[in-house]
């Protein structure tokens, strides 16, 4: 028997027809498995303008469904936030002068101590105080961390109506017209300056003030430590009334949204061995370039979440991920109705988001794709509406100054009115940095997507 069977097997192995059939069957089975896997996998695409909070939403998913952040991420954010803290305080000093806000630290007769701290800070080159390799390399720092400073040394604010003129769906691909292949702006060669050049520029500008300074003993003449810089930032932040005024007007220039958090906690970020907490990482910012793919098991479903960089130069890459998307999660920064884009200071951020949402919602790619709209940064919005009239930027707005609810409804209606199809848009108000509230929002949203997906694939 055994002998007969093995002869049979040997015969089959020599039969080219049977062999090719077996290979075909194996391929077919594998395709079926892939198809089934694809069918079960939910693909969620995070879209929205730069800095709206997409990666922060992703971070919350990581905290909820992936056990949080690893050691390397915690070290990297510590360095990036430290660099941002230094640069952000320098920016406040420089912008105060541009806006004509008198700074206590510019006048040695008024406050000698602050004057010295200001000198010390401006003479410190951020890069000398950062562990560049932990932060992601100097190329990374050049591109991301020192980015805001570059603008102030090279570019004056352009007055504008704030309307994103000529924006349409083609903008998804055509916004890089002015840009080089590597995404840098060819109209602004100084944006490609090396870090040393940027720092030099900042320092030069910093020392070019109205008072002639003595070049004898000062804190800047001895070797500066990270603690010295942290102390200088802390003192300027707490005690210079001009810095406070300038910060209150930070919608008029580009400043990291979490700058106040960095300043409030600067002493811990000054520690070269500091390891970031979850909160630090949620408040920290590393601009996304390209599209990252992240897999999560949520309940019995497998989610693939795609996080795309939102700045204009990033959007040409979006189209590559438009196929097979289960739902689009569009993140809108509600609090940015009075701010201009980082990449084009003639364009109001809210207007840019409206145009972008319109282009995506009504594009052929997403004809049958559900949209979820996160009205994000609600914490900042609630605060801002009390002091910054929405009508100043949106003249047709009729609500009362300080009426957050009326403000939300107004913008919500604008976004809903863009819908040219019958597909529903699910709207949620969010504060992406708040883990407790995001836990509820994200579980409601993922449940809803799973249910919709099951219905669509005819399972329920
Ligand atoms: N206060 C507050 N800050 C937020 C909120 N959401 C995001 N942020 C902060 O906003 C900054 C930008 O957030 P990101 O998540 O990096 O923005 P993004 O949309 O991924 O930006 P790109 O990658 O450039 O497209 C970070 O410093 C976040 O901590 C929020 O709801 N409230
Ligand atoms: Mg991002």
Automatic annotation (TrEMBL):
Region of interest (Disordered), residue spans: 167-189
Write down the Pfam families for this protein, in alphabetical order: G-alpha
Output the SMART domains linked to this UniProt entry.
G_alpha
Query: May I ask which residue range the UniProt record assigns to the signal sequence?
Result: none
What UniProt keywords apply to this chain's record, in alphabetical order?
Answer: GTP-binding, Magnesium, Metal-binding, Nucleotide-binding, Transducer
The alphabetized list of GO BP terms reads:
G protein-coupled receptor signaling pathway; pheromone-dependent signal transduction involved in conjugation with cellular fusion
Protein name, UniProt field: Guanine nucleotide-binding protein subunit alpha
Q: What is the lineage of its organism?
A: Eukaryota, Fungi, Dikarya, Ascomycota, Saccharomycotina
């Amino acid at each position: 028997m055994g002998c007969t069977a093995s002869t049979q097997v040997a015969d089959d192995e020599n039969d080219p027809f049977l062999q090719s059939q077996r290979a075909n069957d194996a391929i077919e089975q594998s395709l079926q498995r892939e198809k089934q896997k694809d069918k079960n996998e939910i693909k969620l695409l995070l879209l929205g303008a730069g800095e709206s909070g997409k990666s922060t939403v992703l971070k919350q998913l990581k905290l909820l469904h992936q056990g949080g952040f690893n050691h390397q991420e915690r070290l990297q954010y510590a360095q990036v936030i430290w660099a941002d803290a230094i640069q952000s305080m320098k920016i406040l000093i420089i912008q105060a002068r541009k806006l004509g806000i008198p700074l206590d630290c510019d006048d040695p007769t008024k406050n000698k101590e602050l004057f010295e701290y200001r000198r010390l800070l401006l003479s410190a080159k951020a890069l000398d105080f950062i562990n560049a390799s932990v932060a992601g390399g100097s190329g990374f720092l050049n591109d991301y961390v020192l980015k805001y400073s570059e603008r102030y040394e090279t570019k004056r604010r352009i007055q504008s109506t704030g309307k994103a003129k000529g924006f349409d769906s083609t903008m998804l691909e055509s916004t890089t017209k002015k840009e080089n292949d590597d995404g840098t702006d060819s109209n602004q060669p100084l944006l490609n300056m090396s870090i040393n050049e940027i720092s030099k520029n900042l320092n030069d500008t910093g020392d070019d003030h109205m008072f002639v300074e003595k070049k004898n003993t000062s804190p800047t003449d001895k070797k500066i430590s990270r603690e010295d810089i942290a102390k200088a930032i802390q003192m300027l932040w707490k005690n210079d009334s001009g810095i406070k005024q300038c910060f209150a007007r930070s919608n008029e220039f580009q400043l990291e949204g979490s700058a106040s958090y960095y300043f409030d906690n600067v002493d811990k970020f000054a520690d070269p061995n500091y390891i970031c907490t979850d909160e630090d990482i949620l408040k920290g910012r590393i601009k996304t370039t390209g599209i990252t793919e992240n897999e999560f098991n949520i309940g019995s479903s497998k989610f693939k979440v795609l996080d795309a960089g939102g700045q204009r130069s990033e959007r040409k890459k979006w189209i590559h991920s438009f196929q097979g998307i289960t739902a689009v999660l569009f993140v809108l920064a509600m609090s940015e109705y009075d701010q201009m884009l980082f990449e084009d200071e003639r364009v109001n951020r809210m207007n840019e988001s409206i145009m972008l949402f319109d282009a995506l919602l009504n594009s052929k790619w997403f004809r049958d794709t559900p949209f979820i709209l996160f009205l994000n940064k609600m914490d900042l919005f609630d605060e801002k509406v009390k002091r910054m009239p929405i009508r100043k930027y949106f003249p047709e707005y009729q609500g009362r100054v300080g009426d957050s609810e009326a403000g939300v409804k107004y913008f919500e209606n604008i976004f809903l009115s863009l819908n040219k199809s019958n597909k529903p848009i699910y709207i949620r108000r969010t504060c992406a940095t708040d883990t407790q509230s995001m836990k509820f929002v994200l579980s409601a949203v993922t449940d809803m997507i799973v249910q919709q997906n099951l219905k669509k694939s005819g399972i329920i």
